[in-house]
From TrEMBL:
The chain crosses the membrane at residues 30-49, 524-545, 565-587. InterPro entries: ABC1_dom, Kinase-like_dom_sf, Prot_kinase_dom, UbiB_kinase. Keywords: Kinase, Membrane, Transferase, Transmembrane, Transmembrane helix. This is AarF/ABC1/UbiB kinase family protein. It comes from the Bacteria. Coiled coil: none annotated. Belongs to the protein kinase superfamily. ADCK protein kinase family. It comes from Polyangium jinanense. The lineage of its organism: Bacteria, Pseudomonadati, Myxococcota, Polyangia, Polyangiales.
Length: 608
């Protein structure tokens, strides 16, 4: 449980008042949603067309990327659920969409009108298979907060009297998601049909959306993530609420209630009443620089070392405690990345800290799914130039946070990769989204930050932890495990050679299949050209014999090609012989090319 000495004093918001959410009967008007989405698509297309009619921003200058982003954001907020997640994923695609468009969608938060408290009570009793009074001494039927997937109620456990937060899933949300996924899949299929940005990997985007929703509608997954992160974040002095597993199910999550101050409330107070915010910091021994550095270093540790990162660290999910301590809430989005990608990303970040941008680019290329046929050196020079420009800004006083932030550099790199149509890596996009969400807090805590120094500090702390571990008693067990791994190394190398050999063989077969298809197409084209050339040569010879030696004139006059003969130019005998020789020369070369591309088969030119 959270120690009482870490519970801060309340922050009076003054003019800013965060009211509790209302409630209404839950409905799911699928037909209305379908029409609404269709109308939204028409408005987006109209906006894009009008923006191109007359630049800048079309007639009246009102068809801007910002206005389009506002339209999409407002529509996603009205639709809720899947469409908010889809808009947030669109905000990750900075390789396709303009920065101002992505920034607007990145600020999208999942808020909704709550459903009635008596419905929440029914769901809890159904999931726990008992009366709510058997578990909770008190239960507030008015939700504290609500989103499209569920809402949060405050209660007290009957056994201990501990204050808890109860997350209850919205009724009918799974059916609603299923219907919305069908609609979304239809629009993605349309984009694929018209070949809209084929390098955008729309299928993978849809799969990521499916996976995200599947995780978020099962609260058992969130409970497991909270238990794991409660252990991993302890070393960073970041608190994670305790989960009461015996009261949790797929649709109900019971966790410790955190008495803290939301980062979003602190930011509002800092903007509207800075004196009040300063007084609160003084009362609770909160230092903003220490807070900001702790947040950023913890993010690097989560992403690079733990491979278990909070995926949505916007100010509404960060709680401020006394003595510059922090608590995280809402673990519905947790990132676990592929280990191969993570190792490459760790190396890339180390090169950034060392300011070796050329090697950073090389490592980045190994992380993308495929590199198109582009000028790599030109792309490298553009990336290095952008990073050098970003580096120059980090030491300049008074430069806005957005220009010195790590996310700003990532955005510029994504734009360059998008220009060269380099497909994105979704693991990298998820980390960029998490970093962008964290920036909303960091720009108020450490506006003059130097990310090179902070990143180097992360690697220094990591080396210190490793050195400390070597001196500990646990290092003996680790050493024994390492020796065991070394003994198994020859067998592992053999297995890897088998697997890699099979993989190389399959790739070679795929490459051979692609080459074979290209050869078949080339062979068909050359065979057609050969047939046409053969016919043309026969006609040329016939024309020569007919005009110069009067051979077969009457017979040729009866053929359907007589008009072709009449349209042929009148040449001297010497020129006709030159044309005939050149025709046979071209036929011979075409015949050799066709033989190079493959053997003859059914339906091929018998002349070959």
């Amino acid at each position: 449980m959270l120690k009482k000495k870490l519970i801060p004093t309340p922050l009076e918001l003054g003019n800013v008042h965060r009211s509790r959410v209302g409630a209404r009967k839950a409905t799911s008007p699928v037909r209305y949603r379908l029409l609404f989405i269709f109308w939204l698509c028409l408005r987006v297309v109209w906006h894009l067309v009008m923006a191109r009619i007359r630049k800048p921003a079309g007639p009246g200058g009102k068809y801007t990327p910002l206005r389009l982003a506002q339209l999409v954001r407002e529509s996603a907020e009205r639709l809720g659920g899947l469409w908010i997640k889809a808009a947030q994923i669109m905000a990750m695609r900075r390789d396709i969409f303009p920065k101002i468009f992505c920034d607007e969608l990145a600020a999208l938060h999942d808020r909704a009108v709550g459903f009635p408290g008596d419905v929440a009570v029914q769901i809890i009793e159904q999931e726990l298979n008992c009366s709510i009074k058997d578990v909770f001494r008190e239960f507030d039927v008015v939700p504290l907060a609500a989103a499209s997937i569920g809402q949060v109620h405050v209660a007290r456990l009957r056994e201990t009297g501990k204050k808890v937060a109860i997350k209850v899933q919205r009724p009918g949300i799974i059916d609603s998601f299923r219907n919305d996924l069908d609609i979304f899949a239809g629009y993605l299929n349309f984009l694929k049909l018209i070949r809209f940005m084929p390098w955008g990997r729309w299928d993978e985007m849809f799969q990521k959306l499916q996976g995200t929703l599947a995780d978020e509608v099962d609260y058992r997954i969130e409970a497991a993530a909270m238990r794991r992160m409660r252990r991993t974040l302890k070393q960073d002095k970041i608190y994670v609420p305790r989960v009461y597993s015996r009261y949790c199910s797929k649709r109900v999550l019971v966790m410790e209630f955190i008495d803290g101050v939301l980062m979003s409330d602190y930011i509002h107070s800092l903007i509207d009443e800075p004196k009040r915010a300063k007084q609160w910091r003084k009362e609770n021994n909160v230092r903003t620089k220490k807070l900001g550095e702790r947040l950023f270093l913890s993010f690097l540790m989560q992403a690079l070392e733990d491979n278990l990162a909070h995926g949505d660290l916007h100010p509404g999910n960060i709680m401020l405690l006394k003595n510059s301590r922090i608590a995280f809430i809402d673990f519905g989005s947790v990132s676990v990345l592929d280990k191969g990608f993570l190792e490459k990303y760790r190396i890339a970040i180390r090169y950034v800290a060392l300011r070796d941008f050329s090697k950073f680019f090389d490592v980045n290329l190994t992380m993308v799914p495929g590199v198109p046929n582009v000028d790599i050196e030109k792309m490298r020079s553009e990336v290095v130039r952008e990073l050098e420009g970003w580096e120059a800004l980090t030491d300049v006083k008074g430069i806005p946070y957005e220009q010195r932030a790590l996310t700003g550099a990532n955005v510029r790199l994504a734009a360059i990769f998008g220009t060269y149509k380099v497909p994105p890596n979704w693991g990298l996009l998820r980390l960029m989204r998490s970093s962008a969400a964290l920036d909303a807090s960091l720009k108020f805590l450490i506006p003059e930050v130097n990310f090179f120094k902070l990143t180097r500090r992360h690697f220094q702390r990591l080396n210190q932890r490793r050195a400390k571990f070597v001196r500990s008693k646990h290092s003996r067990e680790a050493l024994a495990n390492t020796i065991g791994d070394l003994m198994r190394l020859p067998a592992g190398v053999g297995e890897n050679l088998i697997f890699q050999g099979e993989l190389i063989r399959k790739r070679a077969m795929n490459f051979q299949a692609q080459i074979s298809k290209a050869a078949e197409v080339g062979k068909a084209l050359l065979t057609t050209a050969l047939n046409i050339g053969l016919i043309a040569t026969v006609l040329v010879v016939a024309r020569y014999l007919s005009k110069q030696h009067d051979v077969g004139t009457k017979a040729l006059a009866q053929l359907p090609v007589r008009d072709v003969f009449s349209s042929m130019p009148h040449l001297s005998p010497g020129m006709w012989l030159v044309v005939i020789v050149l025709s046979f020369y071209l036929l011979q070369n075409l015949r050799k090319l066709v033989k190079v591309l493959g053997v003859t088969g059914v339906g091929t030119n018998p002349f070959v």
